[in-house]
Amino acid sequence: MNIIQISDLHLCENNKYAFLRADSALALHRTVDYFLHSSIQADVVVVSGDVSTDGSIGAYQTAKKELARLPWPVYYIPGNHDNPAAMQKMQLLPEDWRQAACRRIEFPEAVIILLDSVRRGQSRGGVSDETLELLKSALSEDDGRPTFLFMHHVPFRTGYTAMDEPFEQVEKLMKLLSGRQNLYMCCGHIHAPIVTKMQQISVNTCPPICMAMEFDLTPQGGDMFYTSEPQFMLHVVEGAQVITHFATVPTGEIRKGPYTFSI
Q: How many Å apart are CA 71 and CA 44, to the nearest integer?
């Protein structure tokens, strides 16, 4: 089984440039073209948040139009830049709040859980008690298949200082996940590829379709980006083993920047 994860599309109304610099609509278009003409085969695509920059209907129309060109099912979760109501209007999220907050999707080879980590009106992430109860129910069946928990925010300190805001109720989340076998937590938000473990659980962050984070782990880091080629992840399930690939869409685009996120 192959799972494509893309993240941080940052589309805008009328295909305006994200943060005044990045042609996010073109980045997504090139990514879809690449998937259609490459040797990559997938069973499902997961978009792990920040589909938009401005939360506009137009941004979600672009996402839906572009990703509908793919022959695979596409699932979305919101990020801190997204407007869940607009996503629901465009049928990118379920209308029922429970399904929008936590969905379990069954495949013969694996289980996918889509978790909303957005705290309304804030850039930082976290989980409410209600969401944790839904997640507990979604995790109740453990038959040994790999389980992928997708959410936008990252529950650990990454070193990109400007992005490292506290994750609300991280202790409760990790207590709930403790002891789970073959669980993979897959995040976005950071605009850079990172791999770590939390309580023996594999945690990774997906690099972005649009705007790659400048590698800067100093106290000033985490606020600058480059316009460059889109990136994605491919999670390959082979029985009980999971292999994750970090890949780049070869557009030939020249890297430009860094530019600030703070505008």
A: 9
Give pLDDT tens digits for 123-148.
Answer: 999 999 999 999 999 998 778 899 99
Q: Residue 110 burial by CB count (10 A; 0-12/13-18/19+): exposed, middle or buried?
A: buried
| Element at 65 (helix H, strand E) | helix 57-67
Burial class (CB in 10 A: 0-12, 13-18, 19+), 94: middle
In angstroms, rounded to a whole number, what is the distance separating the alpha carbons of residues 60 and 19?
Answer: 17
- Tell me how far apart the alpha carbons of residues 24 and 208 are, in angstroms, rounded to a whole number: 10
Among residues 68, 77, 22, which one has the least CA distance to residue 49? 77
pTM above 0.85, yes or no: yes
Tens-digit pLDDT profile for residues 145-179: 999 999 999 999 999 999 999 999 999 999 999 98
Closest CA to 203 of 168, 162, 244: 244
Q: What is the sign, positive or negative, of the torsion defined by CA atoms of 8, 9, 13, 17? A: positive
Mean pLDDT by 10 residues, the chain (263 residues): 98 96 97 97 97 97 98 98 97 95 96 96 94 94 90 97 96 94 95 96 97 96 96 96 96 88 85
- Pick from 120, 173, 118: which is nearest to 149 by CA? 173
| Whole-number Å distance between alpha carbons of 74 and 90 | 13
Q: What are phi and psi of 142, to 5 degrees?
A: -125, 100
